[in-house]
Design brief:
This protein is α+β, with helices and mostly antiparallel strands. It is built from eleven helices and 24 strands. It is about 25% helix and about 45% strand. The relative contact order is 0.05.
Length: about 550
Amino acid sequence: MDNKQKSHRWKIWVGILAALVLLILGGLYFVSYKLEAMLDKKLKEGITKSSEGLYSIEYSDLDLDIVGGNLTLKDILLKNDSTAYIKLDSAKKAPNTRFEARADRLAISGASVWGILVNKKIDIGTFTLDSLKAKVLLRDRPYNEKEEKDSYAMIKDRFRSLGVDKFRANGIALELADLNKEGTKPKKVKGVDIAVDNFLIDEHSGTDSTRFLYSKDISLHIPGFKTNLEGAPYTFSFKDLKFSSKNRDAQISKLSLQPTLSLEAFAKQDKLNKPRIELDLDSTWITGINIQKLLADKLFEADSAHVVGGVFDLSKDKRYQLENVSKVGQSPAQQFMKVGLQFSVKAVKVSGIDLGYAQISDKYFREGKIEFKNIWGTLKNVSNDTTVLRRNKIMTADLVGNIYGEGRLSAFFTFDMLSKAGNHSYKGGLTAMKVGAYNRILEPLLNIRLADGNIEKITFDMHGNDVKNWGKFTFDYNHLKVDVLKHPEKGPGKKGILSFIANKFFINDSNPDANGKYHVAQVDYERNPNHPFFKVVWQSLLQGIIECTGTDPKYLPL
């Protein structure tokens, strides 16, 4: 066969192949064109029918590419019908949660038509939502079962599995409205990014411990959130939150709790003798989150949390706040046990935290403040889960900081989390420092000044419960001198005679004293039930100071 004939045959085969390709493409185009109209109808009817009229969907364009397994919807609007909801509610079939949503674009790519038609498997490469704006309406209905339906049971009659390799939704604007509480303002958050990898629903995925909500990884990013707390004069916010179910961690930056009232306004409306709180934390990182327990048991369990940098300020105005409310049963441990959400964190590390307590005197109308700088340490077995606490009932807090940025204070607290009587202990000590720093709180509140003196060392080993505190206290100091001040309304200066008498007859200027006797305090402090936990701790230590200095408490303006 000569070359001319061969060339002619190849042209014939190429022509036939080209014709077949055109025929197939034309057929696919025709099928896609027909399927688009069919899919459009089935999609709208299916959503309305499956929701019993509660939902309907609208969009400006539907584009189907059957060869590539691609589907695109544009300008989507998902609506819920209030009339249909009322009918469902009357029939005791209404859901607890309703949705309203709109999006610029929904795109599905890499869907296997063959797998859907032949293998009864829905396999999707990517699922993308652009500019999603959603409103979630919560209204609990008493007739709804508490138990969630098995997702696989909902699809198994039609499909063997449903899988999506990658789901992406960026820039979500979400509004959450809780209709269970009248007058509650909706919570809003913008710019949320969600990434879901390897989502799968089949007969085994529901029990796969490596999956969270049927996915190998769910990543959440919220670039900012702010809301007013219900029933409390505070604003809660954070700058950035990231969560990964695969890494089992969460990171929060610039977490803040700020009052919406001035201290005076807060104190005037406060009836429970609570301090006003100002909290700013630079960075919080939680690791080892147990995803399965969170879902199955509603228990937040984690290996560790680390809080780095921040300020925690408490303040009171005693001109308006009275100590006439019992604080018994409100130690940190007892408060933890009352939290509605069960939690258990093996270790919480803190570093670089500044803690302050300020109080305006009801007698001298001045603010005194004590400050603890650069606190660091570890809290262990932070839990209110009785299952965990039955194995180890003790929570500990091992903390170190600097009072007024000077003397180093160490304190080791233990709390019996299961004790009905609030059993606890605290021990530690203070290193050398000048006493003058304490005038920041003593002068405004007690109208006395520490004119001179050096703290060499303080140690304490105390125990306590809801009724009393007791233990050993030592206070090594020298050259202590006190000035009893004039009333602020009578001008500056000290009361010379009273100051002389106090220093000469009522206070040991050193320990050991001038006679070489070393004073050790055996504290036995009966609690005032209206004093909060940390004031009781301070009052018990103050009793130790009084005993070591030889001071008669009745001569102190406390």
